Amino acid sequence: MSTKVKICGLTSVADAVAAAEAGADMIGLMLYAGSPRHISLTQAAEISRALPPFVLKVGVFVNPEEALVSRAIAECHLSLLQFHGDEPSEFCTQFGLMSVKALRVQNADSLTALENYATDAFLLDAYSKSGLGGTGEKFNWDLAVAAQKCGKPIFLAGGLTPENVADAVKKVNPFAVDVSSGVESAPGKKDAAKVRAFITAVRAA
After folding, report:
1. Is the pLDDT of residue 138 over 90?
2. Is 167 a catalytic residue?
3. What is the Cα–Cα distance from 83 to 61, expressed in whole angstroms?
4. Do 158 and 151 contact (CB within 8 A), yes or no?
5. Active-site pick, 25, 76, 92, 125
6. How far apart are CA 22 and CA 95, in angstroms?
7. Which helix (H) or strand (E) holds 156?
8. Is 76 a catalytic residue?
9. Closest Cα partner for 37 from 195, 202, 138, 179?
10. Which residue among 5, 71, 130, 169 is least crowded, i.e. fewest CB within 10 A of its CB?
C-alpha cells in the first residue's frame, strides 16, 4: 500500500486546495491557539468546505476542552482527530472518530507510551524544546521502524522535506508522512512548488 501524504498547518483555502490538487490525502487543521499555524473554527470550516470529499480533514489539538473537539467535528466535518498534548487514551477515543496520538520521540524510551493508548494510529514527531510540532527537526528513523511493532498505522513526521522524504519512506515504510514546515515559505504559508515536489517524491519512493 502506498504511503499517504498529510500536509499539516494549512491556514488558507488557496493553500489547502492547491495541496489537494497536488495529491495530498489529508489536510491538517491546527486548532491549538499556541501554534503559529493556528486557525479559528470558522477558518477551519471554510477550508474544509473547499476540499474535495476524498481528502481527509484532520483536526489537530493540544490538550483541548472536550467542547472544542465536539464543535470542530460538527462545524469542520473532520475525518480524523490528532492529539499532541498530554491527553489520556480515554479522552482521545471518546468522540466516535478515528484518532491519532502524537508522540515526541527523543529516544527508545519514548516508545513505551505506545502501550498506553488505544488510538487508531500514532504520529511520531521529533522531540524539541522549541515546540510541540512543526519545528522542522527530525529524529532517528530507526525508532520509527521499531514503533511499527505496535501493529498500528504510523504517521512519520519531524523534519521531512522534498529532499529527504523518499529516504524516509524507503526506510520506515510508514502508513503516512506528515509535513508542515518542510513545505513552507513562512509559518502557515505553504509553497505550492515544495508541496508538489514533496508529494511527487513520496509517490516515486
Report:
1. no
2. no
3. 5
4. no
5. 125
6. 30
7. strand 154-156
8. no
9. 179
10. 130
Q: Which residue has the cell 522524504?
A: 165
Angle at 55 between CA 30 and CA 155, to 5 degrees: 60
- Domain 4-204: give its CATH superfamily: Aldolase class I (3.20.20.70)
33: Cβ–Cβ under 8 A, 6 or more apart, which residues? none
In terms of C-beta density within 10 A (0-12 exposed, 13-18 middle, 19 or more buried), how is residue 190 classed?
buried
Which one of the listed residues 8, 15, 92, 178 is annotated catalytic?
8
| C-alpha cell, 40 | 479559528
> Mind listing the pLDDT tens digit for each residue in 16-64?
999 999 999 999 999 999 999 999 999 999 999 999 999 999 999 999 9
Q: How far apart are CA 138 and CA 78, in angstroms?
A: 28
**H helix intervals, 52-172:** 66-76, 89-92, 141-147, 165-172
pLDDT at 196 exceeding the cut of 60: yes
